[in-house]
Amino acid sequence: MIKQFYKHVLPQKGVYCLGEIDPQTKRTKHKFVETIDELVKAIESRKADTNVFVAMSSFKGYSRKADEAQSVRSFFVDLDVGEGKGYASKDAALKALEKFTVSQELPPPIKVDSGTGIHAYWIFDRDVPAAEWKLYADKFKNFCLDNGLFIDPVVSADLARILRAPNTFNYKTIPPAPTRLLDNKFQEYSFDIFKEFLGKVEVSFESILQDNSKVLSAAQRKHMKLDNYQSNFKDIVIKSMKGDGCNQIKYIIENAKTLQEPVWYAGLSIAQHCEDRGTAIHLMSQDHPTYDKEATERKATQAQDKPYSCEKFDDTNPSICKGCTHKGKITNPLALGKLFKQAPSQENPIKKELVPVAKAPLPALQTTLTGLPKDLFPYVYGKEGGIYMIVPQEEDEVRPPRLVYENDLFPIKRIKSPMDGDCLLMKHILPQDGEIEFYLPMSHVYAQDKFRDAMAKNGVLYDPKNGQGGAIMDYIIKWGRFLQTRQKADVMRMQMGWTPNRESFVIGEKEITQDLHEIESPTSPLCRGIAKHMTTAGTYEIWQACANKLNQPGLELHAFTMLAGFGSVLMDYTSTSGVTISLTGESGAAKTGALYSALSIWGHPKDLSVLNATENGMVGRFLGLHNIPFGLDEVGNILPKTLSQTIHNISQGKSKIRMQASVNAERDHELSASLIAIFTSNHSLYDKLTTLKKDPNGEVARLIEFSIRKPQIFTDDASMGREIFDKFRFNYGWAGPEFIKAIYKIGDEKIISLLDKWSIKFNETFGNDTAYRFYENLVCAAMTAADIANEAKIIKFDSERIFTHIVGEMIAIRDNVQKINDVDYESIIGEFVNNNIVNMLSIKEDKVTMEPRGPLLIRAEIDEGLIYISKPAFRKFLIESNISTKEFLFQMKKQGVDIEQRKKRMGAGWKDATGALNIDTFVIPTSAFNKELFD
């Protein structure tokens, strides 16, 4: 556990320091190691007889000094316990720490019992450069103190701090007190979020260069954009010789022939860090009698660790700095020659290139920013990255450019959204996360709250208090204006599938036009999550070989499911918006395999199929797909009500009408869909729907449930199923675009002709009953798709054999499984009576033979052969059973039972008070019931 603790709490790179303090002499010894394993081993070897501490920083070398610190990976605090200290007991300290974290909305830290106190660590997700950490550690220390947490203020912002190691002993007490970890989970937190929480600190170029130039790696310097600034030694010399620069540099130049080595070396430390270093170090050295070119190079290289500060210059060469006008304003002479290195302005600054990706077999296409257009001035791009703003210059002061944002943030294109109007497709490139794309409506750029939310959601973190947000907003507005003059806005596609008037077809992030071109297609947030699954993988040839293996006797249902995957896009040509098929049956029948075969036409079949989703989630998915098949695997766990609503939504091609929050009007842009949904289930969906409704005819008409059994060829050869269906998971996305191109090639007239051909054939075989129009349109779309796909040589299926088998299955469903409009309405009446038997009054031969024990809802007059049922109560029962009252009356009349509606004194002859009241009733002859019920 101790090893895991230090793996998380210490930086990943650098030299680690272990400190041991002798209990008797109080002397401190240091041991430096280069790995965590060595550190843990050293702790174990020393904890038996001495106090063991570990430095929280890693170091550049074998010295535990603050200015040698390289990086840190946590904030840490020390809560002292004891008489006269912060807390009376360790329990009190822990309670105060918990109260502090909760009240200040901080995440919980890792806690350590130090034997006599409590230490707490907030671990970061990355190594933080020491200079940057120091600035925020000071803020965090003050934050703790300002909010009532009694911490040792000396500890928390000390780059050289050592803290007592857990799992050792504290020898301050007798006997020694054990130290221990109080937590066993090492949660890491984003340092950038801590920075945002504490408030951004501006890190000056001079302070970084003076204090930590040698702790920063090339990657760290690049991230902090330090390399966008470079000092020029010639400029420093010119200013100095005029009396406006550094007196020390002037002294060095004027006394070059007699300069003593320490002062010369101080000057080299400045020249070494300038862009003209190659000439500067020699020009300032060559007049000395002992000048040697190679020796100068070696000496200058030794000076590269750190430029001399003004204070160190004064110590080395006293009295020269007296009267300096820059005293207290700069930290070293480099600031006098500092220049901003701007990338050249470019009209086409966005570059796409293939770059290597770790652990990936092939390079990835990534977008980079190489500069900014002149039109964006005063915004410019640093030579090493970063967006800057050129600020107005004062007459007596040269003001450096202001860093607006350190990461690449820029729009790729303009997009017109039906919902949000003019938008920009933004690219945000983070040093660790890589590229992030997001849509930014221009209306958000003019609304601070919406803009801040959009930026924060996509990792663009800035301090809203220092005007940075306003600068970023203005920068993006200038981009928008620039793009308006350079490019036409693309149309954001809200859905996959057909665009209006079938001008094109959207598959993922590409669009196939009527002239068979494939163009890039920007997609809306609604279907962007779907679009990413519509890619290609494997090979078209492997996919075709597997698809054609479905063209075998015994696999007709599986083959038809794939044809439904093609035919989904043809539902837009039929009289019904959508239809649902369900593959229901035992495990091993390759239901999911059949589903995957249909979805593999368009993209990744597993990701396109929905396994668990809410009703809203399913609505969003099928509306996003629009015409591409909607796959729902294993629907057995979906509630009947949700299932019923989903089937209705699919058949209607719409979700429930949503109202705008602000006004009582339908939304301007309601989406629709026209597709085939493919479900799989282990249990009958017909049975599930009848538990919800007495009359499920609406859903039954829209749902075709095929009972699918394990094909004999899978029994004969167990590997056959895997050989066919497993390959669809790795070879997909090829057939869909080819099918759309084939549709465009043959044209609408031929498609309608093919649909008519299969419609006639279906009616001749199945029968012409409009109640089964969903069945008809499903078959017509799928079989027309078979004709088109066969002609285009996408597949090779026996259409006639598949048609014959499928229509036979449909006839069996109609005749033996579920008849549409076949509800036993007589039993509906009987069920109501049975449910309300305690609410019935029965009269025979003018005598009461049964009294109600609850509300009077039914009156039976046995001698007259009539019963009277409370109309409101019975209508409520019909509504709850999802049965139309008009349909009920109509169907009963068809069966010879003419039901009257009239007023009746329900309690007449029983109780005078109730007998005086007339209520609306249905009058039903007892011949419509089992007479034994009233005998």
Assembly annotation: single chain
User: Which CATH C-level class of the largest domain is it?
Assistant: Alpha Beta
What is the rounded Rg?
40 Å
Structural class, by secondary structure, is alpha+beta
Shape annotation: elongated
Beta content? 15-25%
Number of helices: 34
Name the CATH architecture of the largest domain.
3-Layer(aba) Sandwich
CATH topology of the largest domain: Rossmann fold
Terminal residue distance = 82 Å
Strand segment count = 38
Helix content: 25-40%
Main beta sheet strand tally, sense and closure: 6 strands, mixed
Q: Work out the count of structural domains.
A: 5
Q: Which residues sit in consecutive blocks of at least 5 with pLDDT less than 50?
A: 204-218, 357-361, 657-669
Query: What is the mean pLDDT?
Result: 85
